[in-house]
Design brief:
The protein is of the alpha+beta class and 241 residues long. It has one domain. The protein has 5 helices and 10 strands. A 4-stranded antiparallel sheet has the order 1-2-4-10. A two-stranded parallel ribbon has the order 3-7. A hairpin with a 3-residue loop joins strand 5 and strand 6. The radius of gyration is 28 Å and the shape is elongated. The structure holds calcium ion (2 copies). One calcium ion binds next to helix 4 and strand 7.
Length: 241
Amino acid sequence: MRTRYVRANSAARRLRGFTLLEMALALVILSLMMGWLITPIRVQLGLQKYQQTDQRLAMAQQALLGHAIIYHYLPCPDTDQPPDGWENVLANQSCASDEGILPWGQLGLAATDAWGRFFRYRADSTFTHHAQWFSVAAAENATNIQVTGDAGAASSNASRPAAIILSHGENGLGGIQSVSGGQTYAMAAPVHIDEQENADGDLAFVDKAQQQTGSAVFDDRLVMLSPKVLIQQMVQAQRLP
Ligand SMILES: [Ca+2]
Ligand SMILES: [Ca+2]
């Protein structure tokens, strides 16, 4: 009787031990599988946000063209703090500043990129005066804004757009974050030299593929409005001679 009891007891213990080992193994396998699954999902979500941001930038570009065709000038940047989505124009009909936030409300666009940060917008003053409309000659000679592939390469073949719209990318550095309830806060300053160029408020910008230099990341997204395209569209719409 006693022997049988001991045998049965040890068999039960062995069974219990085996089950625990199995459970541990199952947990290890499960956590590995979760890791494999979650990583691609994370990558996919990241890509989706870039795609969404690129779409919004393309729509903003079209909206600027449409605005120029209707009103004969580009809108001024929104320079309110916090931004309200509407341009800031001075009494003399010029812009309060050539650079600020894209006036999304006025253009009927989404307020921010896919990460919830407002789009930076700079327009050449040639194209933004609300009373003195630009001529074809003035548009062709507008060379204020310079977009290059890398900072410091401004002398070699810079593009000279009429305006640029910029998303500060996934890291958002140099941008303004929109928080629900109308709250906003400034993001930290950029680390990458070319992101610094995009956030310093001057006439030079950098447009290139994502890049990591040490711990500094370049992930900005930029679209330009070409003066040529602008003139072409306005002539077609009979808004320019
Ligand atoms: Ca960035
Ligand atoms: Ca700059």
